[in-house]
Write a structure and sequence with these properties.
Number of helices: 36
Number of strands: 35
Helix content: 25-40%
Oligomer: single chain
Shape: globular
């Protein structure tokens, strides 16, 4: 379990000539053993040979094997039909903003040939694309790039150090994250109480404004990788690589059983372990080869190449054999396919076929050993096409050129497509595949256009002919053509195909393409040599991008990833972290386990990559925001057209990332849930609550159980709940308190607002605008979806769990569950950025999303029992649903407020401050605006917030503004807690409570759920105190939210000038 490296290359070079003096490539065998053992255990678990309790400490794990099966197919995102895709594409760019909540564009307008596109000529559209592409082409994310917004963020971070806000953020879970043991936590608590934040190194180590700042972690990781790369060294860290990824595990299980015999829980332990050890040794040999080949690659001057798994052109030919059935499937999928057999297209339309999965198609989606593979099976296949081409180029000064008719610069059917991916990696948007007319195409069309495999050459072969003479079945199991000879089966036959022939040409015999030849290939920058200067033959590009470009937002350049476009990439990253939860986030007797390692893994290995990849769309939007007015076009209306024409994959990916971060923030507690009694749930808006949060001695009967981690429904991965808390160990005596059993989702919730609002750019660009007004470069997820983040922020800052929470399907007001009380249709997660909030469910063959409310023109009513039942407007979704407690309380509210204020982009600060602002009369000036809502607390304090209109969420009408929504929710509690006179503003239409004061005290209402007395009952509430009313007690707690918002604005120096009382 020692966290040593897996492999290291640290050669000795002559400082004068750069020549190698000594090669030092190393593999740690014990890490190899751990990696192979972990994989074998996982395969045995999938096959049912190992029970859940021997794999994880997690309870309530539901059918993890079905999730593993789904991961090799549709993954966590599944597929979607064309109508859903069109709706979500339009919803992301429909013109809504903080001020305007009404869409200016919808899917019908974009799909209608007589709509927006009809008003623009094809020539105009192409001219806009060319200009935008030239602008974007100069923008890449680079590790050493200057950030425009970072100084402002740093100024706010430093300003808040030593303040009450910093003290509120130094919590015990953050101390655990900092690695403190129990005595250190006690000491830190004492120092915190004494106000020693500015002088205590211990407290600094637990502060998100100091050592626990996630941006600092990222910078340190990147600095380490860059420093190693600059010295020509490499360290393959065991904790980064030893994680079986999801895509091929279920089918790899079948392959190893073909080789070594069936896993069988009925076998005696000796038989099971002997079989497992044979498999482990076989896999360890493969891993050893992969690691040593990677390190030796460095010795022969190969740098890391992190586009291997994204550059579909250079994928192994076996990949294209499987995707196209030896080149025979050429029809593009225009809508979702149930099986993926009849067409080829984006994975949201074209799910992996059974044959693709059985032949481990993901194993072949790479081109070099110099990548850090995300898909584990890619470490089983050895050198790729890039490895040979790079070494040939370095030592022979030769480049690969096509040596067949049709692959010359004069053949525009192929030249534009190839030139556009030559000598670049697509920058922040990823690879830009185009046709001869420079129209964007999906990567799945390149086989039909470029003939990566030649269909006419595909032929059945005798797989045994490729069996090595030295093959030892006693050691390596039965010969398997797929794993041992890398030969796939297409239509049940083992076949091989040839690729177009290439020739090798000296570098000085190559030339760059002329501007006329490259016209339309806007990503070709006329620097890389791409054409045979004598015959015009085209260079075969193999793709390259190394450490300084990786993990920063360049969509094609990530470590530990997999996927040829943004949808596949994000599907992989979400699927892996959800599938790995029951392994990674529980101790499982590991001495090296820590909450810091696991929480940082989720943040750095998965979520920051998605965040940075999704932000690119915001940068493009800012470019178009400047461009379109110059062309006389309305940005709010026409941006939707151009975005859907040029950046569809990026739009979908951005929405996926937003939904994922929002889901992490609102993820419920795993385990039993019930409708809590005694008025804890409003009967009109019922919410299922966790037994772990109830204080009664004997928990009530469960209505449902939230499964822990991922499971499978309808062939899709269904994302589940997690434990929020870090539980202490049991059975370890005095060491229970230091032997943390799991890493809770508390940290996912803490960092979700950071992921949604961080706007520190790392783009390198040399445009005029960068030197005149570089603010356009500062973008965040909140800029990409301003109305979505506004809605998310406003409602998550309340205690309205009915609106905030995820959902499960219901019938007649009761959850639909199976015999084990697990939801029969999984958990539905709220998508906040769509025109109206939707709930998205795993459905049969595809993702199913629906608004829940009333048909337009109808009024939502409650039934005779006071129960409110909004219905699905999409008939494919569950007709009814029930909310589940999202576990978002004051602790999460603090982080949501603080991270939002800290990371707000400077160019949008004023809008967000107005949206979040809360004024206190007396302390502040009256802000003077008429569109307001007020909160009159019984103690005489009066708060004011600006209103921005209302919206309807799940049939409930609420305020749009953030501050207004907070005060509106407080007023809801006021009306339940106190005798009130309703006051309605004639300008804003909002209503607030003016409490009745009798003898200097507010008149508290009787709460029948908390009993009665002679002085406090249904007929007489003159003697009711706050303790006799649940809403009153909740209001006392909730008052701290507007107070903390004002405090944080003060400490981050973000308050409006009229909020004078904040700085007193």
């Amino acid at each position: 379990q020692t966290p040593s490296p897996w492999g290291i290359m640290a050669d000795a070079d002559d400082p004068r000539t750069g020549e190698k003096i000594n090669s030092s490539s190393n593999v740690w065998a014990h890490v190899n053993d751990l990696a192979s053992q972990g994989l074998v255990d996982t395969l045995r678990y999938i096959a049912g040979e190992i029970p859940t309790e021997e794999i994880t400490n997690g309870q309530y794990v539901r059918d993890w094997a079905s999730a593993a099966n789904a991961s090799s197919g549709k993954g966590a995102l599944g597929t979607m039909d064309r109508a859903t895709m069109a709706k979500r594409l339009a919803g992301a760019v429909d013109g809504r903003s903080i001020d305007n909540g009404e869409p200016l564009v919808d899917a019908a307008m974009l799909e209608d040939p007589r709509g927006i596109a009809a008003q623009l000529t094809p020539e105009h559209i192409q001219a806009v694309k060319k200009f935008a592409a030239q602008k974007v082409q100069s923008v890449r994310a680079e590790a050493g790039a200057y950030s425009y917004n970072k100084p402002f963020t740093e100024a706010r971070r430093i300003a808040a150090q030593g303040t009450d806000t910093e003290a509120a953020l130094i919590t015990e879970p953050m101390m655990q994250l900092a690695g403190m043991n129990a005595p250190e936590i006690t000491q830190a608590g004492n120092e915190l109480a004494l106000g020693e934040m500015g002088t205590s190194p211990l407290l600094a180590s637990a502060s998100a404004l100091r050592s626990m700042n996630p941006g600092l972690w990222r910078d340190m990781r990147q600095a380490r990788e860059n420093a190693l790369a600059a010295r020509g060294a490499c360290i393959m860290s065991a904790d980064e690589i030893m994680a079986p990824s999801p895509n091929s595990l279920a089918d790899l299980t079948k392959v190893v059983q073909r080789k070594f015999g069936k896993f069988n829980p009925a076998d005696d332990k000796k038989t099971q372990l002997e079989r497992a050890e044979k498999i482990r040794k076989y896999l360890a040999t493969k891993f050893h080869y992969a690691v040593i080949a990677h390190e030796m690659g460095h010795s022969v001057a190969l740098r890391h190449n992190f586009v291997s798994s994204s550059f579909a052109y250079a994928y192994r030919p076996q990949y294209w054999q499987l995707r196209t059935k030896d080149g025979m499937v050429t029809e593009q999928c225009t809508d979702v396919s149930a099986t993926g057999e009849e067409c080829i297209g984006p994975r949201y339309f074209d799910p992996p076929t059974d044959e693709e999965q059985e032949n481990l198609i993901w194993m072949f989606s790479q081109s070099t050993v110099m990548d850090y593979a995300g898909e584990l099976t890619q470490d089983l296949i050895g050198l790729g096409i890039y490895d040979f081409a790079a070494a040939r180029f370095f030592y022979g000064d030769v480049m690969s050129v096509y040596n067949e008719p049709g692959y010359s610069i004069g053949d525009t059917n192929r030249s534009k497509t190839l030139l556009n991916v030559t000598g670049n990696f697509g920058g922040i948007l990823g690879w830009d595949w185009i046709d001869k007319n420079a129209n964007k195409i999906n990567y799945t069309e390149i086989q039909d256009r470029l003939k990566i495999i030649k269909p006419e050459t595909c032929a059945e072969v005798d797989a045994n002919a490729f069996k090595s003479k030295n093959y030892d079945p006693a050691r390596d199991g039965e010969f398997d053509p797929l794993l041992d000879a890398l030969i796939v089966k297409v239509n049940g036959r083992t076949t091989r195909c040839k690729q177009p022939e290439v020739d090798y040409l000296q570098y000085d015999q190559m030339r760059v393409a002329t501007p006329e030849e490259a016209d339309g290939a806007s990503w070709y920058d006329s620097i890389p040599k791409a054409v045979d200067s004598r015959s015009g033959r085209l260079r075969a590009p193999y793709g390259f991008a190394t450490d300084s470009w990786a993990d920063l937002g360049n969509l094609a350049v990530y470590r530990h990833d997999n996927g040829a476009d943004a949808y596949e990439l994000f599907n992989f990253l979400i699927t892996e972290q959800e599938i790995r939860h029951i392994f990674d986030n529980y101790r499982r007797s590991r001495t090296s386990f820590s909450v810091r390692t696991q929480s940082q893994r989720i943040l750095g290995r998965y979520n920051e990559k998605m965040r940075d990849g999704a932000k690119g769309l915001g940068l493009i939007a800012n470019i178009f925001r400047q461009l379109l007015p110059e062309l006389g076009e309305n940005y709010d209306r026409n941006w939707a057209l151009y975005a859907n024409l040029f950046y569809r994959d990026n739009i979908l990916a951005s929405g996926i990332a937003f939904d994922h971060f929002a889901r992490q923030f609102a993820r419920p507690q795993s385990g039993p849930h019930t409708f809590a009694g005694n008025g804890a749930t409003d009967p009109a808006f019922p919410v299922l609550r966790s037994h772990d949060g109830l204080f009664s001695g004997t928990p009530p009967a469960a209505n449902s159980i939230m499964y822990d981690g991922a499971t499978g429904y309808f062939g899709n991965i269904a994302i589940g709940a997690k434990l929020v808390e870090n539980r202490l160990g049991t059975g370890d005596g005095e060491f229970d308190r230091d032997y943390t059993a799991n890493a809770g989702s508390y940290y996912d919730k803490v960092f979700a607002p950071y992921l949604l609002t961080e706007s520190v750019d790392n783009f390198i660009s040399d445009s005029l605008t960068d030197f005149t007004d570089p603010r356009y470069r500062s973008v965040s997820m909140a800029d990409v979806f301003p109305d979505g983040y506004r809605r998310f922020l406003a409602n998550q800052l309340t205690n309205d769990d009915y609106i905030k929470g995820p959902r499960i399907a219901a019938a007649g007001g009761q959850p639909m569950v199976d015999s084990d009380l697990y939801p029969t249709q999984g958990i539905g997660w709220v998508s906040w950025w769509t025109p109206e909030p939707e709930v998205c469910w795993p459905g049969q063959n595809q993702l199913v999303c629906s608004v829940y409310g009333c048909e337009p023109g109808n009024v939502c009513d409650v039934d005779d029992n006071g129960v409110f039942t909004p219905h699905a407007l999409n008939p494919m979704a569950p007709a009814e649903q029930i909310a589940v407690d999202p576990q978002v309380k004051f602790e999460e509210h603090k982080w949501l407020i603080a991270q939002t204020l800290l990371y707000l982009p400077e160019n949008a600060k004023t809008n967000w401050i107005n949206l979040m602002g809360i004024w206190e009369l007396g302390a502040d000036e009256d802000p003077g605006f008429a569109n307001r809502i007020e909160l009159h607390l019984p103690d005489g304090r009066v708060f004011i917030a600006k209103t921005y209109g209302t919206e309807t969420i799940f049939g409930k009408t609420v305020q749009r503004g953030v501050g207004a929504r907070v005060l509106e929710y407080a007023n809801e509690l006021m009306f339940k807690a106190y005798d009130c006179t309703p006051i309605t503003s004639p300008e804003s239409g909002s209503t607030w409570c003016q409490p009745t004061i009798v003898d200097g005290k507010p008149l508290v209402l009787h709460d029948p759920n908390l009993g009665s007395s002679a002085q406090c009952n249904g007929a007489n509430n003159a003697g009711c105190t706050c303790a006799a009313n649940r809403a009153c007690m909740e209001l006392n707690d909730y008052e701290s939210i507007p107070a903390f918002m004002r405090q944080a604005m003060r400490d981050f120096r973000m308050a409006d000038a009229s909020m004078k009382g904040i700085y007193d």
